[in-house]
């Protein structure tokens, strides 16, 4: 677990340098993407001070949550983000076991997510995922659907619209990624004008988080650069 902590310090420093280089005074949050990594790796980063973790698969996340229950409480509670594609039959578990859903991409999930959010818990924080490069194989709504989907989320008592998320197509040339990030920034500014709670633009991963920060990311989702390569998977759903 030594590696994790060294990598963590380095990623945190790189985020801060990118933010300062961009002349930004606001904070950029780090989401540690722990999919396929064991609970022990999450615990190691948690000891180093990280609190927000992202998982792609509901069942895999629930297994880790059970293992980590002793440290996932009170002042050291983990903020769990679901960042993988969401099937409609998983809305209930997503609403009950996560603090954030970053992958909302269709209207029919909105009402069930709100209905299943347990009373007494804060509303589920939601990012609308945008298929910013219009890839046939990718999840995410079309850019022209963002406004309506954002309004639908904002209207639900069990949900709190926080912003937008995207996974741009892998592009060799940084210029093409930059273009995708700029399109996301423009969509984000429009949503923020319409909805007061919106404060999160989740773009940038291990390969390109510095570029994303230069283009206005407020949250970067980093897996490989923190944990090393992904592991063979046992439980997913
Ligand atoms: C896996 C994943 C990441 C992290 O990717 P890395 O390249 O390992 O940093 C970020 N976002 C989403 C949605 C992912 O599925």
Task: Note down, in words, how this protein is organized.
The structure is a single chain. The chain is α/β, with parallel strands linked by helices and 237 residues long. Helix content is 40%, strand content 17%. The protein is built from 9 helices and 8 strands. The chain has helices spanning 2-21, 39-48, 58-67, 91-97, 110-116, 146-154, 174-194, 209-214, 224-227, and strands at residues 29-33, 52-55, 79-82, 100-104, 124-130, 159-166, 200-202, 219-222. Helix 5 (110-116) links the parallel strand 4 and strand 5 (124-130). The longest helix is centred in the C-terminal third of the chain and has 21 residues, at 174-194. The structure holds pyridoxal-5'-phosphate. Residues 33, 35, 56, 83, 167, 205-207, 221-225 line the site of pyridoxal-5'-phosphate.
Strand adjacency order, main sheet? 7-6-5-4-3-2-1-8
Order of helices and strands: HEHEHEHEHEHEHEHEH
H/I helix tally: 9
Helix content estimate: 25-40%
User: What is the first-to-last residue Cα distance?
Assistant: 26 Å
Bin the strand percentage: 15-25%
Uncertain segments: none
The biggest beta sheet reads: 8 strands, parallel
Cα-based radius of gyration, to the nearest Å: 17 Å
Q: What ligands are attached or bound here? A: pyridoxal-5'-phosphate
* Global outline: globular
Mean pLDDT: 94
């Amino acid at each position: 677990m030594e590696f994790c902590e060294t990598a963590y310090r380095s990623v945190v420093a790189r985020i801060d340098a990118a933010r300062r280089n961009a002349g930004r005074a606001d904070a950029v949050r780090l989401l540690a993407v722990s999919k396929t990594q064991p609970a022990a790796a999450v615990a190691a980063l948690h000891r180093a001070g990280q609190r927000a973790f992202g998982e792609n698969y509901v069942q895999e996340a629930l297994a880790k949550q059970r293992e980590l229950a002793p440290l996932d409480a009170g002042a050291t509670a983990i903020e769990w983000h679901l960042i993988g594609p969401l099937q409609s039959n998983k809305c209930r578990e997503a609403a009950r076991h996560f603090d954030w859903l970053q992958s909302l991409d269709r209207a029919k999930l909105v009402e069930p997510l709100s209905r299943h959010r347990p009373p007494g818990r804060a509303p589920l924080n939601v990012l609308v995922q945008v298929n910013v490069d219009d890839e046939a194989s990718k999840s995410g709504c079309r850019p022209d659907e963002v406004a309506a989907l954002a309004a639908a989320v904002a209207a639900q008592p069990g949900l709190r619209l926080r912003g937008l998320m995207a996974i741009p197509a892998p592009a060799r040339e940084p210029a093409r990624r930059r273009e995708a990030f700029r399109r996301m920034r423009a969509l984000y500014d429009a949503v923020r004008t319409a909805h007061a709670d919106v404060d999160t633009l989740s773009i940038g991963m291990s390969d390109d988080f510095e570029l994303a920060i230069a283009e206005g990311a407020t949250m970067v989702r980093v897996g490989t650069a923190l944990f090393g390569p992904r592991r063979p998977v046992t439980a997913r759903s």
